[in-house]
Task: inverse folding
């Protein structure tokens, strides 16, 4: 007899796929990083208001919400290390604009006025917010001890666009009055510029003249001083 065909059974229903696991949360921000940033901001404020040499470490630590005065030593190596970190942070904030100017100059060499504008404008733009104004008040405490060789070389300015701009500024001024006078005048510029901006940073944010006019006039004044011919040498004794 012919073999009868088997009756097919019911088709099994596939089991539902397990739900995809939720994406793992990103790594938690290390507490040490948050602590360091809080100390940096607290140090900036206290250095601006109380002076970087005289601000009390315990006040900085307390402002940052910490309870151990040794936190400054742990994260920065001490008061001077904290100051250098404050300055590096301020310099880094201005770097993008300075880099853009350097990129433009690769195809079109700037004159003295353009170099001065590029040095001054990003610094003056720190007046736009509280953190920038605090930074200017700290920088202003260091201007009177500026040394051109150190400003253009090591320290917070090393390997930055600002370093390149200052080197170009010295070169442009040297063409007007010689290297000795150029270095002297650029040092004068650093002292006067940082003191002036620190003074404005301590005043009201809407102080006259308006910001754009203020920066334009400041640049014009500095260019006039930097671009003068060297004084005639003094006559020797008769």
Result:
């Amino acid at each position: 007899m012919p073999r009868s065909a088997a009756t097919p059974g019911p088709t099994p229903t596939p089991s539902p796929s397990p739900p995809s696991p939720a994406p793992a949360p990103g790594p938690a921000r290390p507490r040490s990083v948050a602590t360091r940033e809080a100390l940096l901001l607290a140090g900036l404020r206290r250095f601006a208001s109380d002076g970087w040499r005289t601000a009390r470490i315990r006040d900085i630590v307390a402002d940052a919400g910490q309870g151990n005065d040794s936190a400054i030593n742990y994260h920065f190596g001490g008061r001077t290390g904290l100051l250098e970190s404050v300055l590096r942070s301020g310099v880094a904030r201005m770097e993008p604009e300075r880099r853009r100017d350097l990129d433009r100059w690769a195809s079109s060499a700037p004159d003295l006025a353009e170099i001065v504008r590029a040095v001054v404008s990003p610094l003056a733009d720190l007046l736009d917010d509280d953190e920038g104004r605090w930074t200017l008040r700290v920088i202003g405490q260091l201007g009177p001890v500026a040394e051109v060789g150190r400003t253009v070389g090591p320290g917070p300015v090393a390997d930055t666009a600002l370093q390149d701009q200052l080197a170009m500024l010295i070169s442009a001024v040297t063409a007007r009055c010689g290297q000795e006078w150029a270095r002297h005048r650029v040092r004068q510029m650093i002292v006067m510029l940082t003191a002036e901006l620190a003074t404005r940073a301590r005043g009201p944010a809407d102080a006259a003249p308006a910001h754009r006019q203020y920066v334009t006039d400041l640049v014009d004044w500095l260019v006039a001083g930097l671009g003068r011919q060297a004084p005639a040498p003094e006559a020797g004794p008769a």
About this structure: The CA atoms of residues 152 and 167 lie 7 Å apart. The radius of gyration is 29 Å.
